[in-house]
Specification:
The protein is mainly α. It is flat, with a radius of gyration of 25 Å. It has a two-stranded antiparallel ribbon. Helices cover 69% and strands 1% of the residues.
Length: 301
């Protein structure tokens, strides 16, 4: 908390972060260049969303005869009806399935990742180095190579065409374990753990009441990574799911393009836009917790 000072004339003065020597201010040219670069980057990332919004208002003819940067005659009601008709009214079920798969896998995978990372960082046991090498190897292994073996295992267990066939593999994240170990090494002081043990706290109490709070930035990062990876996963659902009601939105939209010789592109683009909105929302909701956690973790003393 900033301290207050009394000036000679009796006024109260509260220093702020903005109070710094003017020599540290960036030059006018640097400010202009920075703003131009930021605007260009924002346009680069937002333009695909804008193009989807514009294109979903058009039918097939309008997509090839009108400007790609502006709206045509509003065909949104027809495109929406086409999307619902082709999916037999199950499009929103696909979106709900993707939300369930991604959220459950994200929550479970995050807890598993930070637990494993904390254990590798703070405990010494036989085989610890071998496990760490295995985690690093998992970062280099393409997930597509494991899809067929996973299918054989889940088929033998009679778990294909179930939600577990998508959620269980998605919970395993070598990147999450690696990041959790890095954060535990740097953000969880050994002295704090030893003090808690001296006070009589057990390992589970230390982890769930103290360590998880310190690892909050890592948890948000890992959750977002697993959530997005599960949402965008296509090959695993393609192998595991044939039941239409269990498909995620990525697999459902693929069927719309693959099974039609002349698909209604406006409906496809509308479905693609609606399928992106949950990802945008989850990032907007969690970014403040991510930023706040990172800022809190960077302050010592």
């Amino acid at each position: 908390m900033a301290r207050t000072a009394t000036l000679p004339d009796g006024r109260t003065y509260r220093p702020s972060i903005a109070d710094h020597p003017r020599s540290l201010d960036p030059s006018r040219t640097a400010k202009i260049v920075t703003r131009v670069i930021l605007i260009l980057v924002a346009i680069y990332f937002l333009f695909p969303i804008y193009w989807l919004i514009v294109s979903m208002t058009k039918d097939n003819a309008d997509l090839f005869t009108t400007s790609g940067l502006w709206f045509a005659d509003n065909s949104m009601p027809e495109n929406y009806r086409g999307l619902m008709a082709w999916s037999r009214g199950e499009y929103w079920t696909w979106v709900a399935n993707s939300i369930i798969y991604s959220t459950v896998a994200g929550v479970i995978g995050t807890l598993l990742s930070v637990s494993a990372g904390y254990g590798l960082a703070k405990f010494r046991f036989a085989g610890r180095n071998v496990i760490q090498v295995g985690v690093l190897a998992g970062l280099l292994l393409p997930i597509a190579l494991l899809t067929v073996p996973l299918y054989l295992v889940f088929h033998a267990l009679h778990l294909t065409n179930t939600m577990a066939a998508i959620i269980i593999p998605s919970c395993v994240s070598p990147f999450g374990v690696f990041l959790g170990r890095l954060y535990a090494d740097t953000s969880v002081p050994d002295e704090l753990i030893e003090a808690a043990r001296i006070d009589g706290a057990g390992e589970f109490r230390i982890f769930f009441t103290m360590v998880l709070r310190l690892l909050a930035p890592a948890m948000v990062t890992i959750f977002l990574f697993i959530f997005v990876a599960t949402w965008n996963n296509f090959l695993l659902p393609l192998m595991m799911i044939t039941e239409n009601k269990l498909k995620p939105v990525t697999l459902g939209m693929y069927g719309m393009m693959a099974q039609n010789n002349t698909p209604d592109y406006g409906s496809v683009l509308m479905g693609s836009l609606f399928g992106v909105i949950p990802l945008v929302i989850i990032f907007l909701v969690l970014q403040r917790f991510w930023r706040a956690g990172l800022a809190a973790g960077s302050v010592k003393g």
